[in-house]
Amino acid sequence: MGLLAVGTPLQWEDSLQYLEKVKYNGVTQLLRIMKESDKVKNKPFLWGDELEYILIDNKNNKLTVNNDDILIELNTELESECKKNDLVYHPEYGSYMIEATPYFPYSHKDIESYVSPEVNMILRKKFINEKYMDQRDLYLLQMTNYPRLGCKNFIGDYDCSGEYISPAIKNIFSQSLFLPDEITNKHPRFPTLTGNIRKRRNRKVNLQIPMFKDIKTPPFDDTVYGREWFDMDVKFIKEDLTAQGASDDLKSYKLRPNHIYIDAMGFGMGACCLQTTYQAPDLENARYLYDSLMNFTSVLLSISANSPFWKGFVSDWDCRWEVISSMVDCRTGFEENTNIHDNNYGYNLSADNTGLLSSPMKRIKKSRYSKVDVYLGCNKIPKDLSQLNDVEVVLNEEVFDRVTKELNGDENLARHFAHLFIRDPVVIFEENVDDVDDNMDHFENINSTNWQSLRFKIPHKISEGDAPEPGFRVEFRPLEIQLTDFANAAFSFLLNVIVQFMLSPKTNINFYIEMSKDKFHWVEKFKTFDECTSVVNKTCKITVDQIMHNEDSGILTTLVNPQLRALNFIAENETWEDLKNNKDNAKERLYYYLRIISDRSKGVLPTEAKWQRDYVLTHPKYAKDSKVTELISSDLINLTKKVYSYSPESDEEKKWYFKLFGEEIGEYLISHKL
User: Which reaction is this enzyme known to catalyze (predicted)?
Assistant: First the structure.
C-alpha cells in the first residue's frame, strides 16, 4: 500500500449517489488499458514481496499507536536514503503497523541474487531500527496477530485500563467493544473504510472463533459486556434465540459456547502477512499464471499458519484468513441470504434489512475477502470454461455485457471483472469522482478492495519490454508472515521457483481442476496440455506432505526440481536435496529454504502456529483456561525476539528454538547469519 494521498473520503450515506458512477468510470479505465493489452508484451520476469510488521514497546511488549511520524519521515525526509538502500515503507490499516518492500523489483542474474530477498528483508528492519527503534526503545514484531489485541491494557501508549474503551472517547467508526479507533491508521481513508463497511451491512462486523478447549475453558467469552452507546449495540444472549418473534432485529446477538467474539475490522486488517507479486511477459501468460496458482493458495497458507491467538484466547484456528474475511464483510443481510446471521448464531437480523441501500439486490455467497471464484482462461485451453468454472457466481450483468462487447467477446475475462464489480466502492474521495483520464483510481477502488487469494493486477500504462512501467502481474496473497526473515525468504523462494517454472516457454503443464474442488484436492499426475484428453485434471484429496513430495505431482518433485535443473543449480540426475552437498554458500542456503518447508509439510517441524500454541499451553503460568495472559504474551514475544536473531541463550530458549527449527536448520542459522 503506497503513501496515501490527501483527500476527503465520503461517509457512506454521502457516497450512495456516486456508487454506480464510480463503478462505471472504473470499467472505463479498465477498458482503456485492456483494449490495447496486446501492446503490453515482452516484459521481463520481475517480482517483489511485502512484509507487514507490528510496532510494539520493547520494554513491555505492548502495542504502540503514537509513532505516526516514523512513516511520514521515511517517505519524505528519508525517502532518498531509503531508495539508495532499496527500501520502501508504507502505511497499513493499523496505526501500529508498518509495511516494508524493496524499492526496486527483484530480478535474477546469478545464484546469489536468489538470496538477496532475505538480505533485503534484514536490511528493512536494520534501517528502521537504526533510525527510530533503538532510540525510542521500540521493536518491529513479526507475528501475524498480536496475541492480546482487544484485551485490557494491550496498548502501551493509550489508556484502556478501566473499561475496554473510555466512554468519554467513543469509537464512532468501528463501534467495537474491544478496539479503540486509535488502533486504526489516522489517515481518513481507514476510519472511513471501517465505518462505511459497518454502515453498508447495517450492523457491526462480527465473528465467533472456536476456543481451544481445556480443563478450565470458560463456557462463554467472558470479555463480552453490555453497552448502550450506539444504535448498533446489542443485547448478548447465551440461550437459544430464534429470529421469529424477536422484537428488534438489531438488538440481540447469540453467543456460541466456547467461542471468542470479535467485532471490528481491526481484528482482521490488523493482522500481518507476506505477499508476493510476479510480472508475466504478457496478458496470456499472466492469465495462465493466475489460473495455475489457484490451487496452491490453501496448501501454502496451511504451511505458513501463524495466528493461533485471538483477543487473549488460545483458539482452535491456526490462520487469519476467515477472521479477515468476516471483519471486512460488507454484505447486507439480504445479500447473505440469511434470516439469522452465522447459521443461527449472531445477529437476529431480518433478511430484508438492507440499510441505506435499496433493491434490487443479489444474493452473494462470500465476503469481498475470500478465495478466488473464477478462472480467467488462456490461449492454452478452449474458451468454454464451464467444466472448470463450475461454481455459480454472481455477476454485475451490465459490466459483463460491456466488457464482453469491448473485448471482442472475451467472456472469461468479462466474467472475472463482472464478478469483482458486484461490490460497491466502500471509500470514495469527493475530489476525484469525475476524474477518469490518466489514472486507474476508480478501477482500483474496486479491484484492490476485492481481497482475494490471488489478485490479477492490470498495468496502469501501456508499455513493452524493459520499459519501467509494470505489465500484467499476479499477486499471491494468502501467506502469513513468519517469525524470521529466513522463513519469509523460504516461502518467497519456493514461490519464485514455482512461478518461473510456470512461465517458462518450455512449460506446458495443465494445472486446472474444477473450481468446486475443496482445498487439498490435488492433481493426481501433472501432464502437458498435449497429453491431456480433457482440460479438467483427475484429482484426489491428499495430505500436504503428499502434495509437496509425491512423485507424480509433488511441488518439490515435479516443479521445483525441474526448474532448479533449468537454472543449472543442480545436475540432471540431482534433486533439490543435492543443493546441500555444495561448497557454494548461496546454494546451501537455498537448500535450507526448501528444507524447512519440506519438513513442516511432513510434520517433522511444527508450523509457527502450533509452536506458539504449544509454548503457551506448557507455560508454567498457564491456568488451563485457554487464556493468554499479559505475562505469557510478553514471555512469548521475548522468545520470538531471540528466535528472530537466532540467538537463544538460556536452556529454555534453546529448547523452544530447536523445536521450531530442528537441530540441523537451527544450528545452520546460528552459524550462518546474514
Answer: L-cysteine + L-glutamate + ATP = gamma-L-glutamyl-L-cysteine + ADP + phosphate + H(+)
Render 519-576 in DSSP notation, one character per residue: TTEEESS--BGGG-SSSSPPEEE--HHHHHH-TTT-IIIIIIHHHHHHTTSS-TT--G
Cα–Cα distance for residue pair 271/541, rounded to 1 Å:
30
Distance separating alpha carbons of residues 417 and 363, to the nearest angstrom? 18
Percent of the chain with pLDDT over 90: 84
Q: Which three cell numbers stand for residue 165?
A: 474503551
Q: What is the DSSP letter of 125?
A: H
pTM: 0.95
Query: What DSSP element (H or E) covers 549?
Result: helix 544-549
**Which are the contacts of 51, defined by CB distance < 8 A and separation ≥ 6?**
99, 100, 101, 121, 124, 142, 272, 274, 481, 488
DSSP three-state, residue 340: coil
Q: pLDDT, tens digit, for every residue of 22-38?
A: 999 999 999 999 999 99
Nearest Cα residue to 136 out of 156, 153, 154: 156
Q: What is the pLDDT of residues 214-223, one digit of tens each?
A: 999 999 999 9
CA distances from 144 to 272, 297, 478 (A): 4, 17, 12
Strand partners, 273: 480
Report which secondary-structure segment, H or E, holds 199: helix 189-201
**pLDDT value of position 344:** 36
- Domains within the chain, CATH numbers bracketed: 503-634 (1.10.150.710)
Q: Report how far residue 155's alpha carbon sits from residue 315's, in angstroms, rounded to the nearest whole number.
A: 21
Helix (H, G, I), strand (E, B) or coil at 287: helix
**3-state SS assignment for residue 600:** helix
Rounded Cα distance, 340 and 347, in Å: 6
Whether 622 contacts 631, CB under 8 Å: no
What is the Cα–Cα distance from 66 to 79, expressed in whole angstroms?
A: 21
CA 552, 553, 557, 561 dihedral sign is positive
Question: Which tens digits make up the pLDDT trace of 363-380?
Answer: 899 999 999 999 999 999
**pLDDT at 166 (0 to 100):** 57
Count CB neighbours of 297 within 10 A: 20
* Cell numbers describing residue 376: 480467467
CA distance 647 to 640: 10
Average pLDDT over residues 272-291: 98
pLDDT band at 640 (very low <50, low <70, confident <90, very high): very high
Span 161-178, pLDDT tens digits? 545 455 566 788 999 999
Q: Is the pLDDT of residue 3 over 60?
A: no
